[in-house]
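General statements about sequence and structure are easier to judge against a single worked case. For one protein, we set the task of working out the structure tokens from the amino acid sequence alone. This step matters because it turns folding into a mapping between discrete strings. The amino acid sequence and the backbone structure tokens for this protein are reproduced below.
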Amino acid sequence: MAVVPEDAAPAAASPSPAGATDPTAGSSDNEITVEETSYVRTEPQQDGSVPPVVTTDMEVLHDKVKKQVIKEGQGKVPSKFSTCFGKARSDMTVEERIEAADRRKLEGNDYFKEKKFDEAMQQYEMAVAYMGDDFMFQLFGKYRDMALAVKNPCHLNTAACLIKHKRFDEAIAQCSIVLSEDETNVKALFRRGKAKAELGQTEAAREDFLKAKKHSPEDKEILRELRLLAEQDKAMYQKQKELYKGLFGPRPQPKPKTTNPLLVFWRWLVSLISYLAKMFTRKND
């Protein structure tokens, strides 16, 4: 699915299932997870193209936020009419909170494409902040699907950034959050498996890759990672084989016994004397 530009309004569509992914996208860590989010609205859409009904106080609040963003150098300057500026998070409707989160996610995607992974993670974290546990707990049906269509890609893209920074334990945690909602999510399984493989958790990584392969059997990245694990297993077996061979070595062969003719004659003579003595004793008896 194409990434929606930051200043474009999300297209109205049927709600996306939780955790659905772009069918044309692979599992590579160089790809961001993109979802299309649909919104159910009961009032005119506020997408920055036309001024919403605002008060002077709201405009002043936006100016303060904009100046703070510029001062701290964090993120892009927000649109004056963005719904995430002008209302407290607790005063937003469900649709407004999801839209605000989606805008942050799209901005994070832009940073990801520019390989600015720290800035991307910051935007994804801010997007997820709009959809905390208390908020998600209140959502059901299509509204929950709408929220997860934004929230899950943020966790997956954060995991991709963390893998780039070699923060594998944190990447595993992000993927596990998604899998708690969608246990068949291929990208979550793939990225968690890759992080586990980097930590040396070979069997756990293989388990995740095999689960991902079950749902996406033709994915070349998954097949490649499984081949790499198989090659690592083979190399480890050969290394252990050489190690044990060096420790114990081959079993020593018994040395052939050497025969001394004099010793043989002496033993024969002793046996003969012993035999004659026994015969003499029996004759006397």
Remarks:
- Residues 1-25, 37-75, 77-85 have pLDDT under 50 and may be disordered.
- Residues 220-248 form the longest helix (29 residues).
- The two ends are 115 Å apart (CA to CA).
- Residues 21 and 232 are 30 Å apart (CA to CA).
